[in-house]
Amino acid sequence: MENTRKPINTKRALNEKCATAPEATSQVLTTNQGVPISDNQHSLKAGLRGPSLLEDFILREKITHFDHERIPERIVHARGSGAHGYFEAYDAFTKHTRAAPFAEKGKVTPVFVRFSTVLGERGSKDTARDARGFAVKFYTEEGNWDLVGNNIPVFFIQDAIKFPDLVHAAKPEPHHGMPQAAAAHDTFWDFVSLMPESTHMLLWVMSDRGIPRSYRMMQGFGVHTFRLVNEQGASVFCKFHWRPFLGTHALVWDEAVKISGADPDFHRRDLWEAIAAGEFPEWELGLQIFTEEQAESFSFDVLDATKLIPEELVPLTPVGRMVLNRNPENFFAETEQVAFCAAHIIPGIDFSNDPLLAGRIHSYVDTQISRLGGPNFHEIPVNAPLAAVRNNQRDGMHRQAINPGQVAYEPNSLAGGCPFQAGAAGFASFPQTTAEDKVRGKPEKFNEHYAQATLFFNSQTAVEKKHIAAAFAFELSMVAVADIRQRMVSSLVNVSPELAADVAAGLGMAVPLAMPKVCRDPVAPEITVSLPLSLMALPGECGIRTRQVAILVEHGVHHASLVTLSTALVDAGAVVHFVGPRIGLFTGANGADITANKSMQNSPSVLFDALVLPDGSEAIQALADNVDTMPFIKDAFRHGKAILAFSAGQELLDMAGIEPTTDKDKSILLAESTDAAEIASAFIKAIAAHRHPTRAKNQRDEML
Ligand code: HDD
Fold first, then answer.
1. How many whole angstroms separate alpha carbon 398 and alpha carbon 380?
2. Mutate which of 154, 334, 364 to test ligand 1's pocket (most atoms within 8 Å of Cβ)?
3. Ligand 1 within 6 A of CB of 80
4. Do residue 518 and residue 554 come from a single domain?
5. Which stretches make up the Catalase core domain (predicted)?
6. How many domains does the chain have?
7. H-type alpha helices, 327-461
8. Model pTM above 0.90
9. What ipTM was estimated for this complex?
10. Closest of 546, 564, 683 to residue 615, by C-alpha
């Protein structure tokens, strides 16, 4: 049967029929049977003070539907945010794949993307230290292709059989249901300290990558080695990388913790507001293409998902860009009901023998059956392919398609043999030769657990190393059982004695002996440093589009300088907020009004990327008297943000104990209010540098 449903981005007839959008006019309220409802405020009673009646079908329908509104949340990645968009191929990439999105230059394929944290429940905070899911559904004319990846290119375990144990250890502990959205507890560290293959991914999660600034500012990775297969049936191996055009940026830990209180929806809001404002996030898709022969020569096994391929060995080939340009219309219908499945591939893409991937191919379809209530989840609009669906699968819970006719089998003659097998035009698995015994085991290279963890650590800048050590020390400080801490630090000795010493110092313990290694005779790694693994080592200028700038205001501010500065910031793409002791109108020194759209209570400085302290002595006096002002300024400083202080505003810096710019730190700028136009470009540059972790030595700390 032909799938007659309309494309995913058009309004469906059913939706239009049921539309009750706020802007709808002349539409009466009805029951789910379409019966107009005269009174939605009172249940049916026998007399005004009498008992409610069982016959009130309107009340019962409404309450029954409400009782069943919640569906099971995802077992992992429950907390997420999604958006629609498209992928555009830079060029035809048919040399290596017949996959539809890469068929020709400029080809556009619709996508739906869902970003997520892994551990927290559906209502948990966005800024937990965690890996982030990065799942992309491509609606191609050859069916849906789901690239279900993370913002980290490696995984904790090598074999899917360990996944339930990993997740049980990491999720809230089963006896008391704590902690929420955090790996900082005994069972997680017990498990990973007994599972040295986790070490490489631990390094990534403890690095700044575990606390991204924004979903729009993270990389994405397909993680596994996949195959690309071309029209002639020739195959190469491939790894998928998404790179954000806004750069890859992180929060600092204290900031992340405070944001989770100030705005638990921080990443969801950021994504939604950027798209709503027309600031569409973009990523470039780069592929690492390599042959089986090359793979054989590497010091690691490309089927081991705890290993990456350094870009020095196989550089990225850019093949296209992805743009997210439309927010969902309904969170539940789209973001919650979207069902990603690692099994969803299309002709031109195939699996490798990665044993982690093999388990995923089973797991995702299986989980959707219970999460979305049956085997027909592919009919939910956000999951429905644009490609026609024609087969003999029938019935089941929540079936939407009305399949006409007598025939639901193949082969048949009664329906003229339709639908018939596509033959060479259809999906055919790559005919990889297999001729080995069935075993439960793994190749020797899988036993090497530390070389790439060391590579990652050694590739970081001093600040990043410090953050990694601090994150390990923090997480392990939350572990009650000393033996677990000891075992984990003994594993870190194998990564780097420097790291182990820092973590041990942070925990007030001696550095233990190195944990014995499983792999006695490792192959020497090809490289010892890979700069793309660091967020800070390579220079990158990504501008200030969508960066949030707080300008403190009070009665008596110097109005003209703020107008000049904010105009320059907005022209450069930043979002400027006037933040007062309350929202609403303030009168500037010249009598002109300025409206605060945020208050220091509803929006503390952790929600902004940069801070401006205004001129105007009356305003500065009032701000100095306000209990919220010093924490606002001190946090902005502590979190390495660009700060600009005009004339009298510099007194607030003094009061906060912050000394102005030194050679080391070009991010605390002082200016006369008359120089607002001149200082704007230096301030924009300082904001574009994202964070300034190296503050002056005589201040609170050398590296933040
Ligand atoms: Fe998974 C969800 C990513 C290993 C089983 N996974 C899920 C999501 C992402 C990933 C991004 C959320 C998709 C969404 O937004 O709806 N998972 C990964 C990556 C892995 C990985 C990058 C390793 C490379 N996962 C993995 C294994 C298994 C699963 C080994 C099981 C054997 N993952 C699931 C799941 C989930 C899931 C239980 C929960 C909800 C869902 O699938 O739809 O089936």
1. 10
2. 364
3. yes
4. no
5. 30-418
6. 3
7. 355-371, 451-458
8. yes
9. 0.99
10. 564
